[in-house]
Each structure stands twice: as structure tokens, then as C-alpha cells.
């Protein structure tokens, strides 16, 4: 197990989505250094087979382990849903793996006032049942309505957020009959915080909207404290890697990290 406090936190996603998680972690733990990996050559993950997603995630994990990461955050709901168990089994002795599904499920389950919830995510996240099955165990009284929204991640990745096109796509999905009686909505894809404002505008505060960044710091903070792994460095040193350099990755990384 990596014990040295100078080791970075590895964070990965299929593309820019995980930057929303990375931005939250660096905001809440400014002394920690991160290594971010965006697998832009292979996105979207959401329509790929489980085998292929696991294969990509293994390669990225091995890369991040070589870089000495003490914690690896799977900042992708799709990868968290289908690859977390495999990664943890194969590499869990070398670093702590954190997925984005469990902290969100635990957080939502503790909200007693929520009894009817919507979940939107990629085809693979929704078909895996990762959220609904875990929520059913912790809160059998919650009614869960899951909807795959496969256009959203590629749309965001192509730079379409906060404009008319994204507004029309968001409206089309959220007006689906399955989501009409919900009190809360989970954005089960790390790309979606980039359109959270538009989703909130659509609901006009009638529905509470949550995403992976709302729950991740608790988990990472506990891990850093429990394992005495907090960085002793004064200044963080962040690195970003991509499997294919895209304009949208550069633009979004600048947006979050200057
Ligand atoms: N950001 C990702 C997620 O949270 C994946 C989007 C994709 O590549 O399809 O699921």
C-alpha cells in the first residue's frame, strides 16, 4: 500500500466529465496533487461493452499506479458501475480505489424526505442497475425511476453546454413521462454537472438535483484521514493526461484549472 504523503491522487474518466470531480477534490483538498487521465480516444464509454470498458480502465489504472498514486478515483459513473469490483480486486493492494456510485447512494439514502427519485446516466450505467439495486438495499421504500440519456455525454464532450442545443436535448429527456413525479434527480454521469445549471433552470427548484461532486469529498477525506495519507506538501502539483488531445479537453481543463 502506498503510504507516502507525497503521492498524488489519480482521477480518471472517459473525457472531460471527471474534471468536475477533480475540480471538487482540488478545491476541498488544495494541498493534494492530482494526476488526471481523460480517455478521450475511447469515449463515450456509455455505449461500450463491459469487457471493453474494463480493459480501458485496467490500462489507465496501471498507468496511474506507475505514477505512484495513493488513491485512484474512478470519476466516471459508467466505469464505476462496471469496472470498480475488477479494479479493486486486481489493484486494491497497491492503491485505494474510490468509485462515484457508492458515496452518492449512501448520501441519498440518508435523506429521509426523498421517497421518489430519478436517475439519469449513460446506457451502460442505467442498464447495470448500479444505483437502483444499491438504493433498494439501503432504502427499499424509495421509488426509483431510471432513464438512459445517451446523447448528453457526447453532446457535452463536443462543447455543447449552456446553449440552445443543450437546452432542447435536456428538455426532451427531462419531460419523459417516467420522471414526472420525482422529488430529486441524480445526475449519474460526471459530465452532467456541466449542464446542472440548465437542469436546475428546467426544474425551477421543484426538484433537488444531485451529482457525483456533491458526495465525493466526504469519501476521499475519510480515506485520507483514516490512512494518514494527507499530503504534507505546501503546494499541489497537478498533471493532466489524455489519450487524444481534443479542443474540448483543453477548453474545459482551462475552465476548471486556469
Ligand atoms: N463521464 C462518464 C460517466 O460518468 C462517461 C460518459 C461516457 O463516456 O459515456 O458515466
Structural account:
The chain has 258 residues and is of the alpha/beta class. The chain has helices at residues 18-28, 50-66, 77-91, 101-109, 123-128, 130-138, 152-157, 164-174, 196-203, 216-226, 247-257, and strands at residues 9-13, 34-38, 71-74, 96-99, 116-121, 143-148, 184-188, 208-211, 239-242. Helix 4 runs parallel beside helix 6. It is globular and about 50 Å long. The model has no long low-confidence stretch (mean pLDDT 94).
Descriptive keywords:
alpha/beta; 258 residues; binds D-glutamic acid; 11 helices; five-stranded parallel β-sheet; 9 strands
Short description:
This protein is 44% helix and 17% strand. It is α/β, with parallel strands linked by helices and 258 residues long. Helix 2 crosses helix 3 (77-91) and helix 4 (101-109) runs parallel beside helix 6 (130-138).
Number of helical segments with 4 or more residues = 11
- How would you state the average pLDDT, rounded? 94
- Largest sheet descriptor: 5 strands, parallel
Q: What structural class do helix, strand and pairing data support?
A: alpha/beta
Order of helices and strands: EHEHEHEHEHHEHHEHEHEH
**Helix-residue proportion:** 40-55%
Determine the N-to-C terminus distance. Answer: 33 Å
Number of strands: 9
Amino acid at each position: 500500500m502506498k503510504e507516502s504523503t507525497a503521492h498524488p491522487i489519480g482521477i480518471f474518466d472517459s473525457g472531460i466529465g471527471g474534471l468536475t470531480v477533480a475540480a471538487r477534490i482540488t478545491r476541498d483538498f488544495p494541498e493534494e496533487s492530482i494526476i488526471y487521465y481523460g480517455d478521450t480516444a475511447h469515449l463515450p464509454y456509455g455505449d461500450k461493452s463491459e469487457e471493453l470498458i474494463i480493459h480501458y480502465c485496467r490500462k489507465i489504472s496501471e498507468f496511474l499506479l506507475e505514477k505512484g498514486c495513493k488513491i485512484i478515483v474512478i470519476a466516471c459513473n459508467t466505469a464505476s458501475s462496471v469496472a470498480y469490483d475488477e479494479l479493486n480486486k486486481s489493484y486494491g493492494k497497491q492503491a485505494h480505489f474510490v468509485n462515484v456510485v457508492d458515496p452518492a447512494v449512501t448520501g441519498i439514502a440518508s435523506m429521509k424526505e426523498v421517497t421518489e427519485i430519478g436517475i439519469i446516466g449513460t446506457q451502460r450505467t442505467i442498464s447495470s442497475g448500479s444505483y437502483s439495486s444499491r438504493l433498494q438495499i439501503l432504502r427499499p421504500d424509495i421509488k426509483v425511476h431510471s432513464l438512459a440519456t445517451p446523447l448528453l455525454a457526447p453532446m457535452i464532450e463536443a462543447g455543447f453546454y449552456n446553449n440552445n442545443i443543450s437546452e432542447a436535448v435536456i428538455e426532451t429527456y427531462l419531460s419523459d413521462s417516467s420522471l414526472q413525479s420525482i422529488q430529486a434527480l441524480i445526475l449519474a454521469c460526471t459530465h452532467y454537472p456541466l449542464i446542472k445549471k440548465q437542469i436546475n433552470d428546467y426544474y425551477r427548484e421543484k426538484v433537488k438535483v444531485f451529482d457525483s461532486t456533491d458526495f465525493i469529498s466526504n469519501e476521499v477525506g475519510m480515506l485520507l484521514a483514516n490512512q494518514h495519507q494527507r499530503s504534507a506538501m505546501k503546494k499541489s502539483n497537478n498533471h493532466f493526461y489524455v489519450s487524444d488531445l481534443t479542443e474540448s479537453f483543453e477548453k474545459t481543463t482551462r475552465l476548471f484549472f486556469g
